[in-house]
Every structure is written in structure tokens, then in C-alpha cells.
């Protein structure tokens, strides 16, 4: 059974709207909710029969299973203006990371690294995690990652992020941890599970990200250093969180702030300018408005604008793929509420893992634990199959995972859009009057998608 917002399919009227939003993923819904709150007449068109796009949840054997392992980053400078944000029952993860430093027949060595200003009780563990690393000359290097992420500008911002780490002076374990976290956030692992990424003295590692979905693909250009630092800042400044009852709460929440039902099952074929208005053409007929928000993937937006005379740098969209495993066990492998990463020089196939029910117990109807594990794709396939995933999870959690029950396995070829450094600019900045863009091709991840919707709405309101 899939949990989705209840929507009524309503035929489009032939009257004008103030704004037409094409696409009812979280980016389009965020834009529509903001515009509605400002008193605009908004119509939302969605080709699918449900809303939310790639964001949703299903009920599986008493568990709430999200469509991929996603996190929300409610950072003040991004989602602060989202209507009703305070009403979302967000459960934060620990503002830090559990790091696997070693594993052998005697057990696993795990240390917690956390920002002492937000998790003062973790200061000793954080220092120990740094001081035990053989390649650290000083405990001060533990904080170099924080300084690099928080800088307004940094050397290498326009370089692929693995090179930006080196240009920013990150070395040793801080550089390795940054690589592994970015690999999980952006689903990018250009260096491979055991290959270096270009950072100095790292001992090998991974890649970059944004979201809160976690995964990877091989052979694709890495995001730029600026994007990587933005993602790290989101993790550091806004504790990643889960909605109490699953990620489906996001589209449900946003739909609840609309005055009109979303027009699901409404295919859009073209978007054209006509005088001072925009015309949207599809299987519903023709609809016009002075403003249009295209909240669709970059390639779809380019197709809709083809022949309109609008020339925007919207490249054919490529994607990072990811597989999410969901397990349950007789008991939780740990009481931790942190994201857990492999900080050894050579990691296994799991990019990140967490006990979701430690963060939000409501994900389980009967109290059984729910464990998520994220595996990146390389050349279109997961980096490891079930047996390898179980071995790696046993190392990460320090307890055998071979008897864990599989609740669900989700293979997503379209995890997050590829956003190489060469395309770091926002194409919406060159859009003609009345046209606005939103989506995670502008800002990666679910949080980035919603932030882009908030930004598109603000731009539309300023333009009127």
C-alpha cells in the first residue's frame, strides 16, 4: 500500500491563473504553497496520478518505508520561509557522525564526531576520533573540516569537489570523512570505494552530495567545490531530520497549504510566450498566465520550451543511481541516532547507514527496529549485492547482520541529478520575464528542491 496525499482529479478550467506551476514534486509544491500564501491564484499541473515526485513512503509489514533514504535539512537560510515549516514534526539525527575506524575478528571500532557547540557531550569522543588517526599531526585538524565548510569562499570552489578538498588544505581523516559524507549526500563517488579522489594524503575515499538522499554513480563529473561546501554546511548548521511519519509528510504538508486541488493526470506538452503572458499547452487544452514555474527535471523543461524562442542552458539530464536496503532485526544494533559511515581507507559497498527507528520510533508500528543502508550505483549497477551489503553492515554495526530480515529493497536509477562543476551556474537567472525554474537540478536533494521552490516563488512575487 502506498501512502500518498488524497487528491481529486479536476478538469482544468479555461480561466486564467496568476501563476501556473508545472510539476507537483516537492519543488513545485513548495513554490505553489508560497505563492498561495501570498494571495496568488495558483494552478498546479502534474502528469502523474499522485504528487510528490520521487518523495513518498509506503507501508510495508508494519513499517513506514520511504522511497529511498532521504533526510531533511531545515537550515535557516533555506527553508526558514517555507509555509508551515514549524508544523512539520521533524525528528533530528545527532548533529554528527558515527565513524567506523577499524574492524576485525574482535569487533568494530566506532567513534562519534560531532560539533561540540551543538553536541557538547560528544567532545571527548570527537577528540579521540581525531587523535587516534595516525596521519593527524594535531587535534586542530579535526576542526579544519568545519572551517572549510563554513567559509564564505574557499580555494577550489569552481573545481570538482574532490580537487576542492585538496585546494582547501584538507588532509588526513578530515578529508576522508568529508569525502565519505559527500559521497552519501550527493550520491557521487568518482574515486571509487577504494580509490583516492584527488585529495592530499587521504588514504583513499569517496565523493559529494546534497539531500538527504544518499548513493552514487561512476564515470560522471563531480559537483563543484562550492556545492560540496553548501551541502556540508547544511549538515553542520541544520541537524538532518526525519518527519515523524515518513517523507510522505512533505508533499502532504505542502498540498495542505494549497487552495485548489492539484490537477493530476494532466500532461503538459509545451510552454510558449504569447504577448505578455505564458501559454501552457497539454492534453487538458490551453491555459495562460502571466507567470509560469517549471518545476520539472532539466531535460523535461528543455523539451517543454523547445520552439518557444527561450534559450536557457538546460542540458540533457543525467542521474546518479542508488539502492536503498531496509532491514529489521530482533533488536536494534545500536541506540545511536547518528548517520554511520565507513572511515577506513578501503570501505565496503554501504555509503551510509542509520537506525531510522532510533530517530523516529513511529516508523515502526510494533517497536521493531528499522535499519536503512545506502548503496551507490556504478555504471548503472549497485556497488554491492546483498551478501556484500550484509558483511559490510556487520562491520559497521559491530554485530552480525546475516540474520536480519529484508523489509524492502529499492533500486532507483534516478536518485539525484548529476550537477557537474561546469554547470554550477543557475540557468533560471537568464530566464525571460514571467518564467521561473525550480527543482533539484538547481539545488541537489529534497531540501535543495524545496529551497529552489521557495526561491522561485519569491522571485515571482518580486517580479509582479
From TrEMBL:
Keywords: Oxidoreductase. One of its GO terms (molecular function) is oxidoreductase activity. Residues 26-460 form the Amine oxidase domain. Transmembrane segments: none annotated. Residues 192-208 have a biased composition (Gly residues). Residues 188-225 are annotated as: Disordered. Its cofactor is FAD. Residues 209-225 have a biased composition (Low complexity). The keyword Oxidoreductase applies. This is Phytoene dehydrogenase-like oxidoreductase. It comes from Kytococcus sedentarius (strain ATCC 14392 / DSM 20547 / JCM 11482 / CCUG 33030 / NBRC 15357 / NCTC 11040 / CCM 314 / 541) (Micrococcus sedentarius). The lineage of its organism: Bacteria, Bacillati, Actinomycetota, Actinomycetes, Micrococcales.
Amino acid at each position: 500500500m502506498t501512502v500518498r496525499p488524497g487528491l481529486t482529479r479536476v478538469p482544468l478550467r479555461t480561466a486564467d491563473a496568476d501563476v501556473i506551476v508545472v510539476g507537483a514534486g516537492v519543488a513545485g509544491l513548495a513554490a505553489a504553497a508560497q505563492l498561495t500564501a501570498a494571495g496568488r491564484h495558483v494552478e498546479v499541473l502534474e502528469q502523474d496520478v499522485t504528487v510528490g515526485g520521487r518523495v513518498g513512503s509506503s507501508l510495508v509489514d508494519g513499517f513506514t518505508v520511504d522511497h529511498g533514504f532521504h533526510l531533511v535539512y531545515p537550515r535557516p537560510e533555506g527553508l526558514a520561509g517555507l509555509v508551515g515549516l514549524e508544523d512539520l514534526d521533524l525528528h533530528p539525527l545527532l548533529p554528527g557522525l558515527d565513524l567506523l575506524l577499524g574492524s576485525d575478528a574482535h569487533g568494530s571500532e566506532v567513534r562519534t564526531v560531532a560539533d561540540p557547540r551543538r553536541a557538547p557531550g560528544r567532545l571527548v569522543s570527537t577528540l579521540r576520533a581525531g587523535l587516534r588517526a595516525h596521519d593527524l599531526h594535531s587535534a586542530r585538524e579535526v576542526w579544519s573540516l568545519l572551517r572549510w565548510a563554513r567559509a564564505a569562499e574557499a580555494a577550489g570552489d569552481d573545481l570538482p569537489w574532490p580537487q576542492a578538498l585538496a585546494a582547501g588544505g584538507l588532509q588526513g581523516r578530515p578529508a576522508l570523512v568529508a569525502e565519505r559524507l559527500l559521497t552519501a549526500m550527493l550520491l557521487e563517488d568518482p574515486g571509487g570505494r577504494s580509490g583516492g579522489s584527488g585529495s592530499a594524503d587521504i588514504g583513499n575515499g569517496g565523493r559529494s552530495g546534497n539531500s538527504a538522499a544518499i548513493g552514487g554513480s561512476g564515470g560522471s563529473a563531480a559537483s563543484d567545490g562550492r556545492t560540496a561546501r553548501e551541502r556540508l554546511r547544511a549538515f553542520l548548521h541544520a541537524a538532518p531530520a526525519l518527519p515523524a511519519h515518513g517523507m510522505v509528510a512533505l508533499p502532504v504538508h505542502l498540498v495542505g497549504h494549497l487552495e485548489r486541488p492539484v490537477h493530476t493526470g494532466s500532461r503538459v506538452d509545451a510552454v510558449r510566450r504569447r504577448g505578455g503572458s505564458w501559454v501552457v499547452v497539454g492534453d487538458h487544452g490551453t491555459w495562460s498566465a502571466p507567470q509560469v514555474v517549471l518545476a520539472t527535471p532539466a531535460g523535461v523543461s528543455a523539451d517543454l520550451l523547445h520552439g518557444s524562442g527561450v534559450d536557457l542552458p538546460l542540458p540533457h539530464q543525467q542521474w546518479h543511481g542508488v539502492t536503498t536496503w531496509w532491514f529489521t532485526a530482533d533488536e536494534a544494533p545500536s541506540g545511536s541516532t547518528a548517520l554511520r559511515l565507513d572511515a577506513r581507507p578501503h570501505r565496503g559497498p554501504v555509503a551510509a547507514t542509520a537506525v531510522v527507528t532510533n530517530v523516529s520510533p513511529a516508523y515502526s508500528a510494533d517497536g521493531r527496529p528499522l535499519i536503512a543502508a545506502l548503496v551507490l550505483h556504478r555504471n548503472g549497477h549497485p556497488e554491492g549485492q546483498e551478501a556484500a551489503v550484509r558483511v559490510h553492515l556487520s562491520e559497521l554495526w559491530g554485530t552480525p547482520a546475516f540474520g536480519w530480515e529484508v523489509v524492502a529493497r529499492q533500486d532507483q536509477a534516478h536518485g539525484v541529478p548529476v550537477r557537474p562543476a561546469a554547470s554550477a551556474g543557475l540557468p533560471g537567472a537568464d530566464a525571460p520575464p514571467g518564467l521561473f525554474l525550480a527543482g533539484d537540478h538547481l539545488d541537489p536533494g529534497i531540501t535543495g528542491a524545496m529551497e529552489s521552490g521557495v526561491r522561485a516563488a519569491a522571485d515571482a512575487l518580486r517580479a509582479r
